[in-house]
Write a structure and sequence with these properties.
163 residues, Aminopeptidase, GNAT family N-acetyltransferase, GNAT_dom
Length: 163
Amino acid sequence: MTIVPYDEQYRAEVLALSLRAWEPAFPLVQESVPPFVYDCFYPAGWRARQYDDLAAVVDDEPENVDVALDGDSPIGWVCTRLHPDDNMGEMYVLVVDPARQRDGIGRALMKGSFERVKAAGLRMIMVETGDDPGHAPARAAYEANGFQRWPVARYFKDLADGS
């Protein structure tokens, strides 16, 4: 495995592997949130929203993306954003092909993200993920790599229900 800067030639493959990676999570997300919330976030379905959001990442900020390769084939990727005002980097996206999960690819991509943030002279790195059962593997991976949880509460109210 090698990790290289993103190149447009990887676009279709990184987007496809991203959808495969999140396939098991989204049914559990859908079961965990109020239906109106899920419908607002994913009116055309989660695949369409995820594809569009991730395509925007690789298209709009390719300089922040690194790709893990097995030979010439992408098997994972990470987007690292820098927030100097907060003395912080952000691991904005981390994806590993489901067929290669638990092979150390995520750990290697995280390490590269950490190094990118350190090289920018920033003190800490953060990552966000869901608190639903579908994101339990992601939470476990982040905690195993030294991330500490920040308690956050996010609330939604359906304004279409008349109250």
